[in-house]
Amino acid sequence: MSGSRANAVFYAESYHPIQAGSIDGTDTLPHDNAVYRALLCSSAGLYDPFGDPKVIGDPYCTVFVGHLNHLTTEDTLHKAMSKFGRVKSLRLVRHIVTGASQGYAFVEYETEREMRRAYEDAHHSMIDDCEIIVDYNRQQLMPGWIPRRLGGGIGGKKESGQLRFGGRERPFRAPLRPIPLDDLKRLGIPPPPEGRYMSRFQVPPPPRRKRSNMDREEPSHRGSSIDREDRYHKGGSIEGEEHSHEGSSVDREEHSHRRSSIDKRSSIDREERFHKRSSSDREVRSHKRSSTDLVERSDKRSFIHGEERFHSRSSMDWEEHSHKSSMDRERHSHKRHRQY
């Protein structure tokens, strides 16, 4: 083995009890009773990772928090993990009889982005004077997972006799001896990833959410339709493509004809509404104008009649006044002649 790969590591993407008990992932026999018990549970299918009724929430938004202080409460953990995102739910695992903390918990965030932020930044942080470890929810996201109580799990202490490898805290080391590929294939153990080793300082990414079949079919369908159109325009002579193109052209023509008919109807309706509105507006305006003209004409007539009456009255008064003044002058002159 080359010296550049001496410190290289790799991580397990699926769980196998014998491989998890091996430091380099190449063992073919169980080396302790716990591994043997986990192998029996795995081969017999006795463990259901989705059978726990206490496990709720979205696994892609949930992180596993381990190495907690046994005095840490839910409030303290919630406050510490809220620094990395909005905590949706939190479950601190406690003993079923005593109610004491078991030292690990599951924290669910609102979004997957917040979960990944906590996965990267909260690892090896301090809560109540204890350095915690953070990992993704392997119970529901790692194929073939066997928990610690059945001899499986990842990590552990050397004194307990259940030291497991392949996880984020203790990855597999690169093999120092030839890999028994035939034995691994016979037992169903995935071989080490040749050429894809990582450094211990690199962060292994958690699994991403798989897209549904509808999401996969839509891009492929769009791509196939685009390819068919390109082939048709380039001069391809495939009957299925021509038929599909003819059908699509007919559909487009029918769709355009429907749109044109709808546009024509809408334009006709708009013209009718416009003519009706314009005619009604003209009638209202003509009625207003006629009423205003009548009022103005009546006002003018009354003013003219008033002026005529005033002039006639003034002329009559002037004639009467002049006649009276002439009579008075005659009388005055006649009196003066009498005096003389």
TrEMBL record:
Alphabetized UniProt keyword annotations: Nucleus, RNA-binding
Protein's name according to its UniProt entry: RRM domain-containing protein
Pfam families documented for this protein: RRM_1
Region annotation (Disordered) ranges: 151-340
GO MF terms held by the record: mRNA binding; snRNA binding
Residues in RRM domain copies: 61-139
Predominant cellular place of this UniProt entry's protein: nucleus
Organism per entry: Vitis vinifera
InterPro entries from the UniProt entry: Nucleotide-bd_a/b_plait_sf, RBD_domain_sf, RRM_dom, U1_U11-U12_snRNP_70-35kDa
Alphabetized SMART domains for the sequence: RRM
UniProt keyword Nucleus present: yes
A GO CC term assigned to this protein in UniProt: ribonucleoprotein complex
Compositionally biased residues, Basic and acidic residues: 156-172, 212-233, 240-331
Taxonomic superkingdom: Eukaryota
Transmembrane segments: none
Subcellular location: Nucleus
GO-annotated biological processes: mRNA splicing, via spliceosome
